[in-house]
Specification:
Distance between the termini: 67 Å
Number of strands: 2
Radius of gyration: 29 Å
Largest sheet: 2 strands, antiparallel
Structural class: mainly alpha
């Protein structure tokens, strides 16, 4: 490697990420989840279109090839069923995507009301624990030694 020549790999400026909701040690990134469901919805639509096209092809083959018409009709029905299933999957993913988008909007609305300093929430909870401890000490006859 030549002197003064340095390779710079992946030094991109990180953008501000949207807030992440935390529920019992699991982080949920609603934007990422929305993107995931959008991708699956598109795959479902693609699958429905492909299966529908194959069903139409088999319907045409059944008319074109009367000797094997029964086989082609069975393939057509299977492909039509697959198209309906893929369409149902796409609809399911569409609803999941809308739900993730709604959760993200709810989180954004809530994040403006919550303090932007997460350690403040922790400090408040520790303060609450200390207050409970002091109250319990004052209520008991024998404080711990």
């Amino acid at each position: 490697m030549a002197e003064g020549h340095h390779h710079h790999h992946f030094h991109h400026k990180k953008e501000d990420k949207p807030p992440v909701a935390v529920y019992s040690e699991t982080a949920v990134d609603y934007k990422k989840e929305e993107k995931h469901h959008k991708h699956l919805e598109q795959l479902g639509k693609l699958g429905a279109a492909a299966a529908g096209a194959y069903a139409l092809h088999e319907k045409h083959e059944a008319k074109k090839d009367p000797e094997h018409a029964h086989r082609h009709k069975i393939k057509e029905e299977v492909a039509a069923t697959a198209a309906v299933g893929a369409g149902g999957f796409a609809l399911h993913e569409h609803h999941k995507k809308k739900e993730a988008k709604k959760q993200y909007k709810r989180l954004m609305a809530r994040s403006t009301t919550i303090s932007s300093k997460p350690w403040m929430d922790l400090r408040l909870s520790l303060l609450d624990l200390c207050l409970v401890y002091v109250i319990l000490l004052s209520l008991t006859k024998y404080p711990p030694s």
